[in-house]
Amino acid sequence: MGKGRLEAFSDGVIAILITIMVLELKVPQGADWDSLRPLTPVFLTYVLSFLFLGTYWNNHHHMLHTVDRITGRWRSPISGSRTASTSSWR
Q1: Least crowded by CB within 10 Å, which of 10, 33, 63, 74?
Q2: Which letter does DSSP use for residue 49 in this model?
Q3: Tens digits of residue pLDDT in 15-66
Q4: Which sequence spans correspond to the domains of the chain?
C-alpha cells in the first residue's frame, strides 16, 4: 500500500477532530469584552488542544515523508490492538 492512503486517512481524522473541538465553542451572550470572560477557560483549552493536535499532525506528516511504502507488518499492530480492544467489550 502506498503511503498516500494512510496520509489522507490521518489528515481526514485530524480534520474531523478539529471540527468536533470547534463545535464545543459557544457564542458569547454580549458584544463587549466582559461577555468573553466566562468563555476564557474553554477557549484556552481549545487553543492548547489545537496546538497539541497540530504538533502531532506535523510530526506524523514529517514521519510519512521519510517512508516509501506501508507494509502489512506495520499495519498489523494497529488493527490487532483495535480488534483486541473491541473484543473485550462483552
Answers
A1: 33
A2: H
A3: 999 899 888 888 888 888 888 888 889 889 999 999 999 999 998 888 888 8
A4: 3-83
